[in-house]
Amino acid sequence: MLGVRIGGAAAKVAIASAELTMRAPIVGPPLRAATERIAADGRRARVEAERWIERTASDVVESNVTLEVTDQVLNSAAVQHAIDHLAASPELRQAITDQSLGMAQQTMQGVRRRSIALDDAAEQTVRRWLRRQPPQSS
Amino acid sequence: MAAPATTPVVLNDEPAVAADYAGVVTRAIALGIDALLVQGALLLLAGMFALIGALVGGFHFGPVAKVLSASAWVLITGGYFVVGWSTTGQTIGMRAMELSVLTENTLVPPGFWRSVLRVILLGVCIITCFIGFVPVLFDARRRGVHDMVSRTVVLHADAVA
Question: Which of B5, B98, B137 sits opposite A123 (nearest CB)?
Answer without folding.
Answer: B137
